Amino acid sequence: MLRTISGDEGPRRAGARRRFPARRLHLVDIESLAGASLPSLSQVRQAQGLYADCLAFGALDQVEVASSHLTLLNAALGWPHARYRVRSGPDGADLELLDVLLCENVAARFTHVVIGSGDGAFACAAATLAAAGVRVTVVSRRPSLSARLALAAHNLIFIDATVPAPGAACQIPAEAA
Fold it and tell me: What is the CATH number of the domain that holds 137?
């Protein structure tokens, strides 16, 4: 039997999974959140502001922003300090974020995943994460939220560009909270 060398732990099975600290992964389709196929810098900043009003970023959080190559500069300037993923073509940003979910062992590295898109393409991946014990939150504009994705998520947060008062952008339905 293999034993650990450190004095604060008892013997552990070889290959036993060690839990990482609570971390959150934010996967943002900026074109979906901004509500435009080619969002301007001000639209990206507005979407980032609404998102940040709803969800505070922790020190260990990781943010991934996906867009087409035409939107990359506005995405990078409007949403700094993120990892940027670029793919053009139909559903390019969605495919980049799905690549992260499917290929980067997300369930073992994060305790909470926030999907910033309403696209139904994320429904299966969200359900798989939830089944693995990862908390899943979806941030979307109300009209663009897929019913399948809404069912797969633990929490839903709606952001809207027309906000009547500061702090009123976040709308979490009681049945989803």
Answer: 3.40.50.1010
Q: Please tell me the pTM assigned to this model.
A: 0.80
Q: Which of the residue ranges 10-19, 44-53, 141-150 would you say has the lowest mean pLDDT?
A: 10-19
Span 110-134, pLDDT tens digits: 999 999 999 999 999 999 999 999 9
In a domain, 94, yes or no: yes
Helix (H, G, I), strand (E, B) or coil at 145: coil
Structural domain contains residue 15: no
When divided into structural domains, the chain yields a total of 1
At CA 138, angle to CA 132 and CA 139, rounded to 5?
A: 155
If you count them, how many residues does the chain have? Answer: 177
CA distance linking residue 136 with residue 134, whole number of Å? 6
